[in-house]
Amino acid sequence: MKIGYLGPKGTFTEMAAKGLFEKGEFIPFRTIPSCMDAVKAGKVDVAVVPIENAIEGSVNMTLDYLIHKQRLPIVGGITVPIEQHLLVHPNRVDIKTIDKIVSHPHAIAQCHDFLLKQYPDAEWEYMNSTGAAADFVHNHPELSVAAIANELAAKEYGLNITHSNIHDFSNNKTSFVVLSNQPVQVNSVESKRTEDKTMLMVTLPADYSGALHQVLSAFAWRKLNLTKIESRPTKTGLGNYFFIIDIEGLMDDVLIPGAMSEIKALGCGVELLGSFPVYSFQKNVAKIK
């Protein structure tokens, strides 16, 4: 099986992909959209992309591209603990004179306190991924630059870890989803299945007062537990939103379909984005194979 992920090598997404699939051909892509496009084009069987971080919230690029561009079914998920480190080129002796910090915007935001304390004058430059940041430092030994990335990236690009666990919050985690047009069997024995989730997209009618309240009531009286509800713009005008709703449990024959039918009867649009198992990442699969 060909498994696409947000690359280059050494990203947290690669860790997530290898935490889900023990065997397969892992193919990195430069951006989230290109990774998802590859599934549509048949270049890969599945795409593994980030969807939410415990500190920074949803990955809007993933949600918006999934909704507006490539409507691919979500068939699986995994949660990965995030441990950010400061990486420098092995040729750099003086780590106090770092002029620039490079990484993904979420990674820099997750290490805000550390950066202000240790490198208050350093410039921040955003990259497509933490792996791309590590690759940049590897390829520019002449620059006074450091990357925020993980241990896998340090090993992959031959960089030194000068500061470990520099993230502001110890409970930092990122959720990733598996997108595919076909059913997928997770074949890694290293990851543990921790929960099941059903994800819906609901669009409210513009002329229906109290519609959101009634939508939530459709779940409440059926005792369906909602683990998340989030609004995103429909991109059709100011004040127009759709809602992403996560339900605890897999799609059944009665309760969730009944709630969807009730919501549709209110004049709302409702679509199933996926009903899938979610796994917990085990750190020992992070080693480069």
Structure in words:
There is one protein chain. By secondary structure, the chain is an alpha/beta fold. The protein has 3 domains: 2-81 and 172-193 and 279-286, D-Maltodextrin-Binding Protein, domain 2; 85-163, Periplasmic binding protein-like II (D-Maltodextrin-Binding Protein, domain 2); 195-275, ACT domain (Alpha-Beta Plaits, 2-Layer Sandwich), CATH 3.30.70. The chain is built from 9 helices and 15 strands. The strands form 2 sheets. Strands 1, 2, 3, 4, 5, 11, 12, 13, 14 and 15 form a 10-stranded mixed β-sheet that branches. Strand 3 and strand 4 (57-58) form a beta hairpin. The longest helix has 11 residues, at 255-265. The radius of gyration is 21 Å and the shape is globular. The protein starts with a strand and ends in a 9-residue tail after the last strand. Pathway: Amino-acid biosynthesis; L-phenylalanine biosynthesis; phenylpyruvate from prephenate: step 1/1. The record marks 174 as: Essential for prephenate dehydratase activity. Residues 2-181 form the Prephenate dehydratase domain. It comes from Halalkalibacter akibai (strain ATCC 43226 / DSM 21942 / CIP 109018 / JCM 9157 / 1139).
